[in-house]
Every structure is written in C-alpha cells, then in structure tokens.
Amino acid sequence: MKKSSTEISIPDDHRSACPVACVLDIVGDKWTLIVVRDLFLGKHRFGEFQASPEAMPTNILAGRLKRLEAAGLIKKEFYQDNPPRAEYFLTSQGAALGPILIAMREWAERYIPGVVLVANIPSPEIRD
Amino acid sequence: MKKSSTEISIPDDHRSACPVACVLDIVGDKWTLIVVRDLFLGKHRFGEFQASPEAMPTNILAGRLKRLEAAGLIKKEFYQDNPPRAEYFLTSQGAALGPILIAMREWAERYIPGVVLVANIPSPEIRD
DNA sequence: CAAGTGACTTGTAAAATGCAAGCTACTTGT
DNA sequence: ACAAGTAGCTTGCATTTTACAAGTCACTTG
C-alpha cells in the first residue's frame, strides 16, 4: 500500500528524522568535510584538493565531489571544454555548513594540543 | 633519529595539524556523533543507545563506546559488578561537542525538509 | 526452573577505503 | 617536432571497516 501524500517523509536517504543523523548521512565520513573546508579556504580545482596535507586518494576525492554536487552542496563549472576542466564552488546551502566547521575548529583549538589555527578564513565564493 | 622535544607535535593519530581534520579523525564517521547525541538526550546505557531509531549495530556501538572512552570524551561507570553493568557519561570535553551538534541541527532544519526538531535538549550530566 | 533481559562478543558477508597504475588531451622545453 | 610534463580523472585490486545474525554469560522474573 502506498503512503498518503500528507505523511511527513524523510526516509529513503536518511536513517531517521533526527537532524543530526540526517547531516551525518550526507557529510558523516572522514573526507567530505575536508573537501568543504578546502572550498572555504578558497580552493576550487581537483589538483588543489589533492594537494592538501591530508593527501586524499584521488578516487575518493572524485567520488566525494560527485556526491556533494548531487546533494546540492557544491556546483561544478567547466572553464574549458577540451580537455574538460572544471572548478567547484560552494552553493549557499554548502556554504551554510560553515558554522559546523567553525564549531569543530573551536573544539579542536581547546582540546587538541598542537592544532594550527588558520587566522582568518576568507568568506567563500558562492555559486547557486 | 628522534625528534627534538621542542618540535610541535600533532601526529600519530592525526592526518594533519588542521583542527577540522583532527576533529574528523575522532568523530568523523556515521555513528560516533549519534552516540554523543544520545548522551545529550539523557541516554546512558548500552540498551538505550541500541534502541535509538538509527538502529546501530551492537558491535559498532561497543567499539564506539570504547573509542570515545579512550579519547576522553565519555566516562564509563559501573553500577554493578556481576554481571558487569555500566553507564556512560559525557566528560566536559565530550560535552563541549555540543556546539557542533547544534550547528548540524540548525543546518538540517533549514535545508532538509521533514526533520523533526527536538524542542529542548536537557543539559547533559557531566562526569570528569 | 524455564524464559527473559542487558550487555556484549564472534563470525562472516558486503561495502568502503587506500594505493598504484593507467588514460586522455593538452602544454612546455629543447 | 618530439619527448616529457601536467591536470583531472578512472580502473583494478588488496586491505580495512561495516552490517547483520547469532551466540554467550550472568543474573532476574514468572
């Protein structure tokens, strides 16, 4: 039997209706937020992400960029056709993850000795 | 050759000195923050975590509780010896993850349709 | 005293990750 | 002009992590 259209949905992509769980379904892994962080730091190209100190494997990077785009958090823009070369930008929805990164940074600065505090993070370029 | 003791360390557990990466090294997966959320919601026992709507596998739950304890984010307290039965509490360090959860909740409420907003989250019981 | 409960552990299959290599279409040096 | 890069990926395969089911242990309750 089909669900009535008045029912609140959520499912299909998410384990539960909990906001924390839903966010973790999207960015809950070791790499996704590293890419988002790099976008906040002004990086836009595959090679720039790859060159970050965490040395993300290229197949995982490619996969994460696709997932982030599919989720509407980033936008891919081609700046040349042949060979195809693209740059990635945060959408406003993606940029709205900023407070999560800030909260992580503040926790780390307080509880993990030796983290390097990046002085001022430029406000990211948004493309919707 | 040994490193001089004046060198800034970080390594060994962390991919880089970036605060975001360091936090992700600790809580960067699908389940860890679900446990932390439950602790914020006043849950303390294995069975209570297990009963959450996300239905976390028991072996993973057991593993995450150990890791969180080893990282100093939670404390395990036995309330009976035989059979051994324990309750888990956030330490002040663990409770300091609160702002990260809040930021996730706020993002989800804005961008994911249908998430259920938990009205008021009680301030958690801390054990250091 | 049989059945149940809480808190786990173990086994095994499925999925995600990590590493190295390969590929394509330019671009640059000599 | 021809070899050697460079950027941005994809593919294959070994290793690791996760998921699901089942089992264990020591009580507790009917």
Plain-language structure description:
Chain A is mostly helical. The first copy, chain A, has helices at 19-27, 32-40, 46-50, 58-70, 92-95, 98-111, and strands at residues 74-80, 85-90. Chain A is built from six helices and two strands. The first copy, chain A, has a single domain, classed as Arc Repressor Mutant, subunit A. Helices cover 42% and strands 10% of the residues of chain A. The radius of gyration of chain A is 17 Å and the shape is globular. A two-stranded antiparallel ribbon of chain A has the order 1-2. The N and C termini of chain A lie far apart (38 Å). The model of chain A is unreliable at 1-6 (pLDDT under 50). Chains A and B meet through helix 1, helix 2 and helix 6 of A and helix 1, helix 2 and helix 6 of B. Chain A binds a DNA duplex (30 and 30 nucleotides) through helix 3 and helix 4.
The secondary-structure class of chain A comes to mainly alpha
User: What's the β-strand tally of chain A?
Assistant: 2
Largest interface: A-B, 48 and 48 residues
Low-confidence stretches of chain A: 1-6
And the CATH topology of chain A? Arc Repressor Mutant, subunit A
Distance between the termini of chain A: 38 Å
Total count of helical runs of at least 4 residues of chain A: 6
CATH class of chain A: Mainly Alpha
| Biggest sheet, spatial arrangement of strands of chain A | 1-2
Number of structural units classed as domains of chain A = 1
Mean pLDDT of chain A: 90
Strand fraction of chain A: 5-15%
- Mind summarizing the main beta sheet of chain A? 2 strands, antiparallel
Approximate shape of chain A: globular
- Portion of residues within helices of chain A: 40-55%
Q: Rg of chain A to the nearest angstrom?
A: 17 Å
Encode the helix/strand succession of chain A as letters: HHHHEEHH
**CATH homologous superfamily annotation of chain A:** Winged helix-like DNA-binding domain superfamily/Winged helix DNA-binding domain
